[in-house]
Each structure stands twice: as C-alpha cells, then as structure tokens.
Write a structure and sequence with these properties.
The protein is an alpha+beta fold. The protein contains four helices and nine strands, in the order E-E-E-H-E-H-E-H-E-E-E-E-H.
Amino acid sequence: MQIKALTPRKAVPSLNVSVLGGSQFDSAFQDAEKFTLVVFYRGLHCPICIKYLIELEELVPAFNSRGVQVLAISSDSAERAAQMAEKIKANHLKIGYGLNLATAREWGLYISASRGKTSLGIEEPALFSEPGVYIIRADGNLYYGSTQTMPFARPSFKDLLGAIDFAIAKDYPARGEYMGEL
C-alpha cells in the first residue's frame, strides 16, 4: 500500500483521540488560537520517544504563549500512555492514546511491526506508527508536516518554535501546496 502525503493549505484528516485526564482531542473542534502542534510518537517502548517528549514537555509553555496547542499521540493503551506521561514527568503536555492505525495511515504515517522487546526491555506493540510532526493552522489546514520511517533524527522543537515565530511575524504561507502538472 502506498503512503499518501498530506497537502499543505488543505484540510488534515479527522483526528479524534482520548487524552489522559479524561478529555478528548477532536481536530474538528480544536481551539488553538494560531496553530496546533501534533506529535505522533511510537509509544512507551521507544527510548528515543522518551527523550524527544521530555524536550517537548519543557517547551509546551513557550508554544502555548504563541497561541499553539500541543498534543503528543500514540497508538498505546491508556495504561501505557500514563506510564509515558510519568516517565517524561508531563505537567504541560497533553498525551493522546489509542490512535487507530488506519487513521495514522490517513495522516501519512508509516506503520511498523513488532520486533520484540526494545533496549528498555519493553515489548513493542504488534503494530505501531512511526513518528510524525504536524503543525495545523487554526482553520484546520496543514501548515507543516514531517513523517519518518525510523525513530532517528526528528525535527527540533526549538527550531519549530523559531519557525512559528517567523511564520506569525511575517504571515508566511505554508509551502509545498502545488499539485499541478509538472
């Protein structure tokens, strides 16, 4: 099956997931002032995800001060998501869980099969999505997207914060939207 990329300046697929603490995230009813930063992570089993989400947790207040809502999502169960929240000491970061893998594929994420236990000694789920980072405008259209086939070399949240500052200050449009003849 071919992975379909999302198109900048076009609506993102529907995304509805449970969030730790009893709330729901529904992309159709997101309430971000300027953007929503959606970070898809592999799950509790991934040591690189832990480090990445610790960095994000520290920067959530900076994103929020710019009108950016932040959410990290995986296909993990509520129990595994709660363990991740504990590992990263999440006080600011909203953690979504139970991502349907068909939805992950609609978002252009790659899906991997389990290879057993990771270096943390935690069993990988039978199937899970690889990382993706998206910035969605308040109108529900894609502004920025990055997907990966591996857990390594992810976009820097500090760089994304600077990019958001530039985009807001210069009213910079999303790029990569051209879908015409070549």
